[in-house]
Amino acid sequence: xxxxxxxxxxxxxxxxxxxxxxxxxxxxxxxxxxxxxxxxxxxxxxxxxxxxxxxxxxxxxxxxxxxxxxxxxxxxxxxxxxxxxxxxxxxxxxxxxxxxxxxxxxxxxxxxxxxxxxxxxxxxxxxxxxxxxxxxxxxxxxxxxxxxxxxxxxxxxxxxxxxxxxxxxxxxxxxxxxxxxxxxxxxxxxxxxxxxxxxxxxxxxxxxxxxxxxxxxxxxxxxxxxxxxxxxxxxxxxxxxxxxxxxxxxxxxxxxxxxxxxxxxxxxxxxxxxxxxxxxxxxxxxxxxxxxxxxxxxxxxxxxxxxxxxxxxxxxxxxxxxxxxxxxxxxxxxxxxxxxxxxxxxxxxxxxxxxxxxxxxxxxxxxxxxxxxxxxxxxxxxxxxxxxxxxxxxxxxxxxxxxxxxxxxxxxxxxxxxxxxxxxxxxxxxxxxxxxxxxxxxxxxxxxxxxxxxxxxxxxxxxxxxxxxxxxxxxxxxxxxxxxxxxxxxxxxxxxxxxxxxxxxxxxxxxxxxxxxxxxxxxxxxxxxxxxxxxxxxxxxxxxxxxxxxxxxxxxxxxxxxxxxxxxxxxxxxxxxxxxxxxxxxxxxxxxxxxxxxxx
Length: 600
Fold this sequence. Notes:
By secondary structure, the chain is mostly helical.
């Protein structure tokens, strides 16, 4: 009888709670609707991870198996150091493992990343509400909706670290704000998300510790607190940190050779040589390009800034960044801001974020391909969003009628969410991902052709750098239990130490060599090799046409862009260049072959 009464009471409390917060619930659902729609669309369309996403899929399936990952994926900086250094921990794989094993590869990743983004948005919005009420709740959902729209629908479930960490970092900033406002119980959550960020991508190595330290220092110094609350928060924080770092520490002390943390320290201290960093002037230019100069929050700004568009000059960047700092200081000097601790702390944190961003960028290694690649500094966009959040807080406090603020912010959320419902993917962010998916699916359907060939030795094809098919092939091999080894120092670390030849038993060394080629290489069978898998994206006649047009365009002075596509020099060649691009993309992203070469 008592259990039935308690259930009735719980349902009554739930109905009361829903009735009390029905407006906030409705607006929050609208804000995350684009993520939900993108997840569903990915599952229904047969989303297949390619490129690095497929490597995340492979390692997520490895969780709690003989190939269990104790570290994250190797960092691209390994190419510069000549030594494989990995991202510190496997929390990304741990989070993805359950959904991947329950729902399958592509659907599992899409659902897991989408659910994580939704949890970060809703959680940070609720924390904002607890700190400063409805205006902060709506302000956060406005900036989250704008950020989601700038990313585009297809990145809302993308597991690649630079993209899948954007909303967790934004929620981390809100938790740091909560700490600065004296919300000590936010500490375990901040530490948990901070550990996830630190382990998953090395670009957060300065940001997370500095922000956590600042938030804790300001929060504890704010005013006396109930000691039991502080002790409870410290207890939970210690447990979260211990669990988060148990696996990297195990690898450090019980793994083979120098531990990854030792290698990271050696790399940071210059023992593996030095790499070019952004430096102070470039740090100012890059940060201003995202924080203060249009189109920093538009889709073109997210997709192209730092990569395609020329970044502003140092003088222009300094002027705009200085103007932003002045605006924040003026906001801080307003009497209402001084009287409201949350607004004041948000402004302080925004100023601190600009300073930490400049410091972090100053020591950010330049991309190994010589580009200011946006994926290296995606954390700039959540910082820019928090700065906007600070201004929205000031705006909301300056309007006397809160209903007007609620109406304006709700309208912005609805419009932005509606604009983000249709599918949109930037070619500059994910070149060829949509086009390569059908070919990847057909390739995976033929993977059983590789059974019974012994332990396959995968050989990286040097002329197919950046092709999207090797990683989904290896993920499919692992899923089907077909053994393979990878000797390449970088890719070998990405698929797991136990898949390196050095860790293989002598009995499994007898197997064919395996290689992948796309584009023109898919049609050319190497001497002595067998083409075990073949997906033909264009016909033989179209291939001849493509070669002829390519030769004609080169003869007329056409130049290649950063993706290797030809750009016509003269306007009269434009139609020819359009046909060339159509055929070339079908060739590169639709044609793939897997070759087997007998072991010597």
